[in-house]
Design brief:
The protein is mainly α and 101 residues long. The protein has 4 helices and no strands. It has a single domain, classed as ACP-like (Non-ribosomal Peptide Synthetase Peptidyl Carrier Protein, Chain A).
Amino acid sequence: MAKITDKTREEVKKTVYEFFADECEIDIATLSDDTNVIKDIEGDSLMFLELLEIFKKKYGLDIELKTVGKYVVKHPAETIGAIINMTMLIIEHENGISNLD
């Protein structure tokens, strides 16, 4: 588990924005926290898994995909802002995210 700082939040936000801009081949300036990944930029759910792998490596996270999957079913993240918030929870709580309900 990692302590969340303003620096961590900014790093996560920058990484998420850059990831979706690159993967969806769009200008990063067109993205906002309210951008719906599926409806607005034609992203898909597999992109979140790719993004999760980036953060697992970057922060040395010990998180199982099934744990994230169970959490996402109950708390879907459709916008970039929601994905950033969920990523922060994963970084902070790792496998303990399932205990947040």
